[in-house]
Amino acid sequence: MSEEVDNTPTFYTKPAIVRLARKSGIKILTDDAIPMIDRMLRQRVRELTNDSLAVLNARNARTLQAADVMEAIKMRGQIRTSGEHLALNKTESV
Question: How far apart are CA 19 and CA 21, in angstroms?
């Protein structure tokens, strides 16, 4: 019985993916999960890059700044700014 091997080249190295997984609380990561995580990371980076470029173009600027990336992330609703969670907690307790 031969196992099917995924020879798709990865963008992120296996040690980099394992480090990210461990930082997020995963203790063990199987080898077959590496290519799937790699594809997901590449897709998310591509989406974030496109969104950041849209923010950059809206500013009529040529240099991408950290604020542009943060704005792109906020546009997707993936993070809250530091003050927003305080406002949400106040309205939830009322």
Answer: 5
Rounded Cα distance, 18 and 35, in Å: 12
Q: What is the spatial distance between Cα 77 and Cα 15, in angstroms, rounded to a whole number? A: 29
Query: What CATH fold (topology level) applies to the domain 14-93?
Result: Histone, subunit A (1.10.20)
> If you search the block for the tokens 């930082």, which residue do you land on?
23
Phi, psi of 12 (to 5 degrees): -95, 140
Q: Is the pTM of this model over 0.90?
A: no
Q: What is the mean pLDDT of residues 41-53?
A: 93
Q: What is the per-residue pLDDT for 11?
A: 80
Between the alpha carbon of residue 37 and those of residues 17, 30, 49, 92, the distances in Å are 8, 11, 18, 35
- Of the candidates 53, 16, 58, the residue with the CA atom closest to the CA atom of residue 34: 16
